[in-house]
Specification:
The chain is 48% helix and 14% strand. With 206 residues, the chain is α/β, with parallel strands linked by helices. Helix 1 runs antiparallel to helix 5 (74-82).
Length: 206
C-alpha cells in the first residue's frame, strides 16, 4: 500500500527556464546568452557545490561573476538567478488532494538562494509535510543516500512510496531502491498515474 509521495520540485511542481538567467547575465557581460550557458555547463561542479551547501551564496555569486565577467550587484544577480520559475498549478492541485490520504515529501536538488525565493514567491507550492533539500543534507540525486533520507522523512519503507521526477537517472535510482516511480513530463497524466497506484485523489470529505 502506498503511504507517501516523494516528489521533485523543478519541472514537476514548478516549471523553470534557466535560459532566462543566462539572458539576463548576458545583458551585463561581453558574452552572449549561448556562451554563458556553455560556461555554466562547463563548470557544473560549481552548481553542485552550491546545491550541496558547500559554498555560500556570496561565494557562488563571486565565482559566477568572475567566470562570466558580468557587472551587477549581488542583489541584482540574486534576482536574475532566482526569478526563473512558474507554478505548475495542475500538479499542485493533484498533490494537494493526494495529501489528504498520504504524506508528501519534497526531494529537491536546489540551493539556498533559489529555495528561499520559491518559499516567498510561491507559497501555494509549499504543500509538503517534509522537505529534503540537497543544500541541507549535502547530497544530491541520484545519490542513494538522499533517497533514504526522504524515506525516513516520509516514515515509510521504499515499497510504500511513489517517487516523481523529470530526470530518468533520478527515477532509475528510486526504482533500484524499491520505490514505485513516475517519470514526469509535461504531457504526463499525473492524476491517472497516481490513481493507478491506488492513490485516492477525491476531495476529502468530513
Amino acid at each position: 500500500m502506498i503511504k507517501a509521495i516523494i516528489s521533485d520540485m523543478g519541472q514537476v511542481v514548478l516549471w523553470f527556464d534557466n535560459s532566462q538567467f543566462y539572458r539576463r547575465l548576458s545583458q551585463f557581460s561581453s558574452f552572449n546568452e549561448k556562451q554563458i550557458r556553455q560556461m555554466v555547463r562547463d563548470h557544473f561542479d560549481l552548481i553542485e557545490l552550491f546545491d550541496k551547501g558547500q559554498i555560500s551564496p556570496q561565494e557562488f555569486y563571486t565565482k559566477i561573476i568572475s567566470l562570466t565577467g558580468a557587472r551587477l550587484t549581488f542583489e541584482a544577480f540574486q534576482e536574475a538567478y532566482c526569478d526563473v520559475f512558474s507554478p505548475n498549478y495542475q500538479v499542485i492541485d493533484i498533490l494537494k488532494r493526494a495529501r489528504n490520504f498520504c504524506r508528501l515529501v519534497l526531494l529537491s536538488n536546489t540551493d539556498i538562494l533559489r529555495f528561499s525565493f520559491i518559499q516567498q514567491r510561491f507559497p501555494e507550492a509549499m504543500i509538503f509535510d517534509s522537505l529534503v533539500l540537497s543544500y541541507h543534507v549535502g547530497l544530491m540525486k541520484p545519490h542513494p543516500g538522499i533517497y533514504q533520507i526522504a524515506l525516513e522523512a516520509a516514515q515509510v519503507r521504499a515499497p510504500e512510496a511513489i517517487f516523481i521526477d523529470d530526470l530518468e537517472e533520478n527515477v532509475s535510482m528510486a526504482e533500484s531502491l524499491g520505490m514505485a516511480t513516475i517519470l514526469y513530463r509535461p504531457e504526463t497524466d499525473l492524476e491517472k498515474a497516481l490513481t493507478s497506484f491506488g492513490i485516492n485523489l477525491s476531495p476529502e470529505t468530513t
